[in-house]
Amino acid sequence: MGVEWTGVFPALMTEFAEDGSLDLDATGRHIQSCIDAGVSGFVMLGTLGENPSLYGDEKAAVLTAAVEAAGDLPVLTGVAEYTTDMAIDHVRRAERAGCAGLMVLPCMVYPQDQREAMAHFRGVAEATDLPIMIYNNRVAYKVDLTPESFVELSDVDNIIAVKESSHDSRRITDMYNACKDRYQMFCGVDDLVLENVLFGAQGWVAGLVNSFPKESVRLFELAREGRVDEALEIYRWFMPLLHLDVDVKLVQMIKLANQIAGEGSEWVRRPRLTLEGEERRMVTELVETAIANRPNL
Predict the structure, then answer these.
(1) Is 163 annotated in the active site?
(2) Which of 10, 66, 90, 297 is 20 to 30 A from 229 in CA distance terms?
């Protein structure tokens, strides 16, 4: 399709006020902070964007505000709905908002088998001209598209990228061997980013970039340039925080990290609750330690 997505794409948080209402101004400020750090685009309404916690009109408002705030940078939306038809309804919101692309997930709640998942992704792709990144996360969503699955999908022209979140660094190489350069490969697991980039990932849909955008962009740049020793120094500093991205409470944890780092607030929507007790102490200590030992960029 002639679309090139590379670099760091924050899986941006959706900012709320303490009462749970949308805070679009805060979301815009966070977008600007990430732009200032050098990100290449944004993924709104993914897991960290609390997609299932928003009503349809709220999703539309978030996307419209994000497209305006992002300027020339591409804004993708997560497409995470209960059915294929509901996913296509959300695609229409994205088109109206001016999104540059989609990050499409399997249907929520019901774990599809291969035939059903492939039909879902094809159905969404056929309903739009927007370019698509498939979010492949067998750990969270119990659906795994293998390299062979992507060979089968290679005839769908607007499926152009894959956010690979299988938690297996070998998958990047397996995908290349099976598909060559048919797809733009993105790392989707924060604590595998250095390995994934060295093995060929062109981009990173990142979680902890929300809290530490400058460090995230620098880590990615060094890895892409093959400056492994310099990248490894940042990676080792960052790793205790990057592990938060794979915790079941990643949303609450990264939002608290954002608050401590001055990038946002910790407010979430029920059934999520803000952290307390040992979990809160652990995240606070990790973030404060990271800030105290921040690398000199």
Answers:
(1) yes
(2) 10
